[in-house]
Amino acid sequence: MGIRTPAPFITSEGKHPGPGPAPLLLHRREVEPVKDFDASTNGRFVQARDKLAGELVWQVSVMDADPTVKAAQKTVAVKILSPMQPVPPAPMPGLPFTPVEFDQMTATPYVNGNGRLAYSIRVREMRAPRPVGKPSSAKDAA
Fold first, then answer.
1. Cross-strand pairs, 123
2. Residue 10 within a domain
């Protein structure tokens, strides 16, 4: 069992805390339902629900655009908790991938099948990136 904790990958000013910007990019534009392997049976698909929030779980594949990240670690599955299927932002003309931002991100550490530390990334919202310095809501601007 993991412990969920907020993952402050983006500062309150909307910037990546590292040496440079590291946007996340949609690897594939599909947002897919996550299968509940315990409840599903042959021929009967049951969508997973988050154990704590009770929300439906969706999944999207994203890439980290940070050039310092190793190739094997660039793509990660992000689980989105939402009552309805999230819609990815519109593609940006001239770009092969769609930049995205996530809100209310948590990272749950676990030991994977190879005995290595891994993280399950869960978010509440996926959207197009805001311009740098623009607050996400009136509450943040206060």
1. 80
2. no
